[in-house]
Amino acid sequence: MIKTGRPFRSVSFLFLFSILFSSVYAQEVSVEATLSETNIFAGEGVTLDVVVSSSSLSSLERPTLPDIPGLRWLPNRTSQSSNYSYINGRPSVSQSYGFQLIAEEVGNYTIPPISVQVNGKSYSTKAISFKVLDPKTIDSGQAERSPDIYVRLEPTDLNPVIGQQIIADVVLYFKNGIEVSSYQASPGWKAEGFWKETLENPQRARPTSVILNGVRYQKAKLLQYAIFPTKAGELTLSPFEITIRVRQNRRNIRDPFSFGFAQESKDLLTLPVTINVQRLPEPERGVFNGAVGDLEIKRSIKPASAFVGESIEIITEISGTGNIPLLNKPEYDYPENLEKYNPQENTNITRTNRQIGGTKTFTDIVIARNEGRFEIPAKEVAIYNPSRNAFEYTMLPALAIEAKKDPRAVATPLTELRLDVKPVKGLASWVSTSYTPLYERGIVWMLIGTPPFLLLLAFGYKTYLEKMSSDVGFARSQKAKSKADNILADATKSDNVKEGYHLIQQALNQFITDKLNLPEAGLSSDALVTELQAKTNDAPVQELKKLLTKCETIAYAPGTSQQDLSDDIETANLLIRQISKAL
Question: Cα–Cα distance between 73 and 114 in angstroms, integer?
């Protein structure tokens, strides 16, 4: 006789074990963080990927990045993707978050563990060590690796004098096999201590081949600026941030047919550049109006002869290349009999051929109050030429003015200006009063219409209160402006410029999300602008995008002052009013 009790218990045990194993397996959650490069050059962009995997993701909160020393997070560049697969009869779900960061300070750092809430439980990633390298080591051959792509700010002169024109080029270096399809400079770059002029840039940069420490790169000048130092000493050009759209020429697994889907954006940052500005020497003679460059000055009169009381123009023209936007008119000695009025100024600037040039014209208006011959004395003017490291002197010749009496002028006697006004005499006029019926009196109709009007007003207010309590979207929209005004009021009281710009960004984000009934968190600035643009075409989208970008990058704009913050708070208030009208 065969006994079957034990085999049945064994099968039951295996069945229960498999069910228990399956349930445990189904609840396994994997949370991993990876950095695209652990040896990063300062100014280079990297991606921090956080991937959450499990057989089931019933609830998942977006990871919040902690403060990472050495790296700066770009909130508007965060990506998100999902993947679902079925392997060996088991489902697998993964959610990926890609955070774009830019390396800043050279040194050794660690990304701390990142906490993620998955299915009601908290999970943490492992810490990641990384190193930020100095890009200057690329040329010297001491770099630990050669980057695929990086950007530099290259001025033409590191030891200029005050007022000298310097060309600052934004230069991109990239290896063969990388195709740069487009680029976009981040707004808000400031050259503290310099007057900045944007030069005309080519629509498409032409790369040239260079070899740096045995590695061949393509070098392309993307943007160029003319900067003029306004004071002496060590001045620092702040980092310049630019977004590059690149594509690898080699075939990519995700883009096997090279349709262009493998393109990616890279955020790059230049290193700050220190420029040692020298003081100008004292001119040996003449008057110096701050002119520095290859400049020419002329003076003329128009007309040389005029009647008493007619206007005469004294024209000073400065032309050439140099600091033309910063020039002032030389002061002249005018005779006492000439009455001078405020000068007129006209500037014609050219920005071609990698330099600022053009003409600046000053026009003094003078009037002779008496007839006679008057002379404006000669004046010697000094101009500093940096290419020769010396002053050049120009003598402006004396100008003669002949003032004559106008023979057509006729004296008007005082008696012709007298007005013959005679008093009106006569008896008083009596006006008889008339009676107005009640139905023609406005006060009567106002008293009759007031009670119905108040009743309608009370009914409308009651309907409004009911809608405010029942319709969340309507309530958010109605309270949006007052909440934004309160946040901007806090920004006005703030003594911390960076905190003030954070409050401006918070006010704008809160106002738009409440007006459009969008989620309060999780939307980037670009997403908010896109949602607003989809609702109306009348909203000031470009101004809003520019201000939001400035708020996000304000921590890296060292020249920002309290006055700039006050101006941008006023701009935010204006944008909120314009958006309210558009919606």
Answer: 14
